[in-house]
Amino acid sequence: MAWQGLMAEFLQVPAVTRAYTAACVLTTAAVQLELLSPFQLYFNPHLVFRKFQVWRLVTNFLFFGPLGFSFFFNMLFVYPAPFRYCRMLEEGSFRGRTADFVFMFLFGGVLMTLLGLLGSLFFLGQALTVMLVYVWSRRNPQVRVNFFGLLTFQAPFLPWALMGFSLLLGNSILVDLLGIAVGHIYYFLEDVLPNQPGGKRLLLTPSFL
């Protein structure tokens, strides 16, 4: 019964959030079971463009490290409970716009990959989740967020709080900064520029989506 309830809840999650979350969990589980190695997943331009291992363009966004605190911390910001930012984004400003939501993933992924080359970043999943949080926070500026029961602040401060928490854990904040930067670029092009005098919408979802 518990399993059926969990599956019923999972199937209620919007399609894109559900697919991305499932891909992250399955990829990490495959590594944990030694069916895959992180060395088969990380982003390596030489292997992508010289050896044609093009799957690395996707798999580097799906692996968050071995099962443990770091992995589950990231999953809190993708899968519901307690934080549901990816889901709320898909159910909120992207409701009925699944293709646009997928395009945001593609735009963010391509831009992060290009910028990641400059910083020699091998796994960009955390940057992608920070980007999602950033876009949600800018579109919901009046929402007050309770951060682990310790702090309460307006939503736009959330990405910076996450970066500070990563710093406290001893992690590099370069990935968080990349997610914030790409999230801001998307937010500016999609929400700010079209509303400026003479501005226009530059990010047009391809028809094939």
Automatic annotation (TrEMBL):
One of its GO terms (biological process) is ERAD pathway. It is a multi-pass membrane protein. The chain crosses the membrane at residues 20-43, 55-81, 101-124, 145-162. Its main location: endoplasmic reticulum. Keywords: Endoplasmic reticulum, Membrane, Transmembrane, Transmembrane helix. GO terms for cellular component: endoplasmic reticulum membrane. Belongs to the derlin family. This is Derlin. The gene is DERL3.
